[in-house]
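User: Okay, second chain of the day. Same drill as before: sequence in, structure tokens out.
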Amino acid sequence: MTIEFRTDSLTAPTQAQQPSFCVQTCVAYDADEQARNLHGWNQTYDQLTAGRFVGGLTELCLDHMQVFVETTSHTLRQTCEVQEDAYWFGIPTCPEGSGRIDAQVIAGDALAFRPGGIEFELLTSAGYEIFGVVVKGDVLRRYAAEVERVGLVDRLPNTEVVSIGTARKERLCASLRQLLDDGAANGAPLSSFARNNLQASVLASLFDVGALPAGEQVEMPTRGRRQSIVSEAREYVLANRDRAINVPELCERLYVSRRTLQYCFQDVLGMAPATYLRAIRLNGARRDLCNASHASRSVQDVAAAWGFWHLSQFATDYRKLFGMRPSDTLKAAINGRAQTDDYSFAH
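Assistant: Same drill. Structure tokens below.
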């Protein structure tokens, strides 16, 4: 499924303050300025150690999710509050014991968690870096129910500190850093599909690392059913080739959890669902390009017909899979048909 969001944003901005849907970076030389730079929070920063303060913030505000990484040069006491019916996950990258939330130490294998509408206190050491994810409550609960097949009522963490393991924590930080780096490199505002995909990807990561409760263990489908699920997924993608289908939509369509879908694809094809489904669409686009003639559509037309609306990303994925640019495929097809036509007239 594609998780559709209502028009009100995560931070409920006014019309003039609608999210830009692109990564924004800023630097502050005052702790209060740093506190104000983070959108949608009610917070106050007190600097506790001497020296000139420098803070950095890289932030991506999506429809109903906020992802950011914050760096601060000096020891701070922070009074923080996220808006109601939202949840904050704070993932420090600093050594064990260098941060506290409501007087509890955030261990090296742990992250911080707080629901919205409740004030909490952070104590962060000098040279601190922390990733943050804020997600609307209704979006999180809907994703959990429809994609992970988990009911979150009365199952969310009831403590400020959640242990997830050092390796999982490092993996989560790496994925969030990559997300922000890619967004900053792209520069352009993200499309609706890209935003939905990113939000689903971040939520999946939170479940994968154990920041949120997993569903009950269910019996895996039989081999025949696993093959059937993969076939149904392929047929659904081909029937909707003009738009990219993501994993949440498939989970809803096929009535399976994300974990079950991944298991089926790994067992039958040896690859992740998203990888296979993207390859199916790329192969379809390649066939259309190979069958092109002088009067055929452009590379952009073919890409759009297969749900690739970001042309440069399509070209990158195409070249990675086939070892050539889509424009080269089109050119070769047109030249080949021209030579065939010349041969036909000559004989």
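The chain has two domains: 18-208, 223-335.

User: Thanks, on to the next one.
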